């Protein structure tokens, strides 16, 4: 039971403030006031349920207790014991089950609900659209099953709200209220309701739509006014309803056609007629009307206007309805091109009748260029099939019209190249500018002819590019056979500098096409160097080079280059030399040995980056066993803790190899170095200390175990290794890059010096380009 505890509290407080203060006193106080209560107040309290106390003040709502609750509690405690017991009995709260049972519906009520459900009305929507206030205005009607007519929904937004709240909606005096729910409507109606709710109610974008008033003030929101952009969605949804119509002042249409192409009306709308020496556009039938420059409506055909035509068609509609009689659309012979432009726009939407002489014919222009002493001469011809036009005067005598837009592009190009808007003209444009800037544009417009003098000056044939192995490097050679040999180097330099041409001493213009410029740029990306007229690059670039130019028909690879590129991409097929190792290698270890042997064959260093435990030591021992010649030596650097592990591995797998560990005191290490063993093993710090002694020896192979120890290029060990002269170097590391990309640079400066750019340039490279380089 909800009690007006605040009024009780006020009664208590008022009574205390006025009279009978001495009749009853309570020792407790609240809010600074002693509570003095008169027993006659009790008569109205004897049947209140104190256990159901509830207060709607903020304190009680937030904390479950308030000063009103305290007043009630003090009041109850101040009552005589007999009255407290009486109220306690009255306020005894029954069990929840005893309260729940009486709420169960009776059999009669359940039967009534079943009966009502059986006769629940089946509902459907009817739709209508009209043009109102220059906008599309949609209305809905509610059709109740067995009702003789549909009823206009006077507030669409509220109606949809009631549906989704499943509340009652008053239909009419005859039908009365009905309870609404979405599943009472047929599927087409549900689809429309869900769309309107999603896009026009839930979004609440009032700047894009409006539920507007009807003629009567009672029709508050009976129109849904929408922008044109919703048309493609709403038309199919409305037309799927059982009843739909588009209503105008003159007709009613059951369908709307959304035209993506010009529609064909039954009667002619526009035609062009010739009178004396001019042409006139005449509106011969209903034009329709345009809504907000975006939608052209004629009968029940709706056409969304292209943005570039909106202003024009809106002006045309204004002319039709306001100025057609007083200001006819008349064009002279000289304005025939502009007339045809207007006709072309109109024909995008409705057919327009033209006389034969205004039928548009395409043409092919031919630009014939010749060279005079200081100028370039142009003779232009437009070919209309068998008819040829040699002057502007000839255009006026054509029995048809020509494409005005195409003609405008040609005239614009003539002016750009320094010519006049004539069929015969001269230009003082520089020969280089003509060849590079203007000639390509003329070629896009039509056919181009150059006389012999101009043809001799223009060299457009792409260079043939040869790539071959040249003394440990890859050489790239451009074949510019069309110019003298003494200028080839300068031409390559211009191409290397990404210039789009080179002009010879004789005035010839060598034009570098996009493909040649791309080749030059790709070579630079792959770290090729241009010096003394030659382009060279590291042999390790063979794979990247072959991949970059594999589809370029102007690039030729030598046979040796093709073999090397194939081996780099298929190391598993490389034939290795026989070897004697006292163990059986696993398949992946054999592939590792093949890969290392292939690199050795082409004098490449490399990094073996297998994970820990996969046998990098065994693969390296097998490589040396297979490829180390009797007069060759190898130096292995490893952490001090692994030196004798290496020696033991050699003893186990290739016991016939002479192996020495250079470790201990300086004197001992030098003695071991001077033994010139086939295999010498030492630590990184020892190598740094004994560098001058190792340099006196001649080593063919350098093996760097746990190569991440030299990831810092600034350390003395890394610097010493860069100074050390050795033919081939291999690095072994499970983690060649631990933290930063620069770490791989330090290792490659020792393994393959010259492969990567300087450290400063390397730091600017993207990870993708670094991956391509290595």
From TrEMBL:
<dbReference type="InterPro" id="IPR013663">
    <property type="entry name" value="Helicase_SWF/SNF/SWI_bac"/>
</dbReference>
<dbReference type="InterPro" id="IPR027417">
    <property type="entry name" value="P-loop_NTPase"/>
</dbReference>
<dbReference type="InterPro" id="IPR000330">
    <property type="entry name" value="SNF2_N"/>
</dbReference>
<dbReference type="InterPro" id="IPR007527">
    <property type="entry name" value="Znf_SWIM"/>
</dbReference>
<keyword id="KW-0479">Metal-binding</keyword>
<dbReference type="InterPro" id="IPR050496">
    <property type="entry name" value="SNF2_RAD54_helicase_repair"/>
</dbReference>
<dbReference type="Pfam" id="PF00176">
    <property type="entry name" value="SNF2-rel_dom"/>
</dbReference>
<protein>
    <submittedName>
        <fullName>Snf2 family protein</fullName>
    </submittedName>
</protein>
<dbReference type="Pfam" id="PF08455">
    <property type="entry name" value="SNF2_assoc"/>
</dbReference>
<dbReference type="InterPro" id="IPR014001">
    <property type="entry name" value="Helicase_ATP-bd"/>
</dbReference>
<keyword id="KW-0863">Zinc-finger</keyword>
<dbReference type="InterPro" id="IPR038718">
    <property type="entry name" value="SNF2-like_sf"/>
</dbReference>
<keyword id="KW-0862">Zinc</keyword>
<feature type="domain" description="Helicase ATP-binding">
    <location>
        <begin position="597"/>
        <end position="754"/>
    </location>
</feature>
<dbReference type="GO" id="GO:0008270">
    <property type="term" value="F:zinc ion binding"/>
</dbReference>
<feature type="domain" description="SWIM-type">
    <location>
        <begin position="41"/>
        <end position="77"/>
    </location>
</feature>
<dbReference type="GO" id="GO:0005524">
    <property type="term" value="F:ATP binding"/>
</dbReference>
């Amino acid at each position: 039971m909800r009690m007006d505890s605040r009024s009780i509290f006020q009664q208590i407080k008022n009574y205390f403030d006025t009279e009978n203060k001495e009749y009853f006193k309570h020792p407790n106080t609240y809010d600074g006031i002693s509570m003095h209560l008169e027993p006659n107040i009790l008569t109205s309290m004897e049947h209140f349920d104190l256990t159901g106390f509830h207060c709607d003040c903020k304190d009680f709502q937030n904390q479950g207790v308030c000063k009103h609750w305290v007043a009630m509690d003090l009041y109850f405690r101040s009552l005589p014991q007999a009255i407290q017991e009486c109220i306690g009995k009255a306020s005894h709260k029954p069990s929840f089950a005893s309260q729940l049972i009486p709420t169960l519906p009776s059999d009669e009520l359940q039967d009534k609900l079943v009966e009502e459900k059986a006769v629940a009305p089946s509902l459907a929507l009817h739709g209508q659209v009209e043009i109102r206030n220059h906008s599309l205005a949609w209305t809905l009607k509610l059709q109740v099953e067995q009702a003789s007519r549909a009823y206009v929904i006077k507030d669409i937004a509220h109606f949809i709200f009631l549906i989704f709240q499943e509340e009652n909606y008053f239909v009419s005096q005859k039908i009365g209220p009905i309870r609404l729910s979405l599943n009472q409507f047929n599927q087409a109606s549900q689809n429309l309701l869900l769309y309107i709710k999603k896009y026009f109610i839930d979004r609440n974008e009032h700047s894009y739509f409006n539920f507007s008033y009807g003629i009567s003030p009672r029709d508050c929101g009976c129109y849904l006014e929408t922008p044109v952009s919703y048309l493609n969605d709403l038309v199919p949804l409305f037309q799927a309803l059982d009843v739909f119509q588009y209503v105008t002042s003159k007709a009613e249409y059951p369908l709307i056609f959304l035209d993506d192409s010009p529609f064909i009306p039954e009667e002619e709308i526009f035609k062009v007629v010739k009178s004396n020496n001019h042409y006139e556009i005449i509106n011969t039938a209903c034009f329709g009307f345009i809504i907000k420059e975006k939608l052209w409506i004629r009968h029940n055909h709706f056409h969304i206007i292209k943005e570039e035509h909106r202003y024009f068609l809106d002006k045309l509609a204004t002319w039709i309805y306001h100025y057609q009689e007083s200001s006819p659309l008349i064009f002279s012979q000289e304005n025939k091109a502009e007339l045809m432009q207007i006709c072309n726009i109109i024909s995008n939407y409705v057919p327009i009748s033209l006389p034969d002489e205004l039928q548009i014919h395409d043409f092919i222009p031919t630009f014939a260029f010749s060279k005079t002493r200081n100028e370039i001469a142009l003779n232009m011809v437009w070919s209309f099939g068998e008819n040829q036009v040699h002057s502007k005067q000839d255009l006026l005598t054509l029995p048809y019209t020509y494409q005005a837009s195409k003609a405008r592009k040609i005239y614009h190009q003539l002016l750009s190249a320094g010519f006049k808007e004539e069929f015969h003209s001269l230009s003082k444009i520089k020969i280089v500018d003509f060849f590079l800037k203007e000639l390509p544009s003329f070629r896009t417009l039509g056919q181009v002819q150059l006389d012999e003098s101009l043809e001799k000056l223009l060299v457009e044939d792409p260079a043939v590019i040869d790539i071959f192995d040249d003394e440990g490097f890859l050489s790239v050679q451009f074949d510019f056979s069309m110019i003298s040999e003494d200028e080839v180097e300068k031409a390559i330099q211009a191409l290397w500098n990404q210039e789009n041409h080179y002009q010879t001493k004789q005035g010839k213009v060598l034009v570098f096409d996009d493909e040649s410029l791309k080749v030059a740029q790709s070579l630079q990306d792959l770290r090729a160097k241009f010096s003394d007229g030659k382009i060279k690059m590291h042999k390790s670039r063979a794979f990247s080079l072959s991949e970059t130019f594999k589809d370029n028909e102007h690039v030729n690879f030598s046979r040796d280059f093709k073999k090397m590129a194939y081996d780099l991409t298929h190391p598993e097929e490389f034939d290795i030399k026989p070897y004697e190792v006292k163990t059986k290698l696993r398949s992946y270890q054999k592939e590792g040995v093949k890969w290392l042997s292939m690199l050795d064959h082409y004098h490449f260093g490399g990094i073996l980056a297998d994970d820990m435990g996969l046998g990098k030591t065994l693969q390296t021992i097998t490589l040396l066993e297979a490829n180390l010649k009797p007069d060759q030596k190898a130096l292995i650097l490893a952490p001090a803790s692994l030196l004798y592990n290496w020696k033991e591995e050699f003893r186990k797998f290739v016991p016939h190899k002479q192996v020495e560990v250079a470790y201990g005191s300086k004197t001992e290490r030098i003695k071991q170095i001077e033994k010139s063993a086939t295999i010498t093993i030492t630590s990184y710090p020892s190598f740094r200390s004994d560098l001058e002694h190792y340099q006196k020896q001649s080593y063919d192979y350098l093996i760097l175990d746990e190569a991440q120890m030299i990831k810092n290029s600034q350390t003395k060990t890394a610097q010493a290794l860069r100074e050390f002269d050795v033919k081939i170097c291999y690095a072994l590391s499970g983690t060649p890059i631990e933290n930063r990309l620069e770490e791989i640079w330090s290792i490659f400066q020792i393994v393959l010096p010259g492969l990567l750019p300087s450290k400063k340039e390397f730091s600017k490279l993207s990870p993708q380009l670094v991956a391509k380089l290595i």
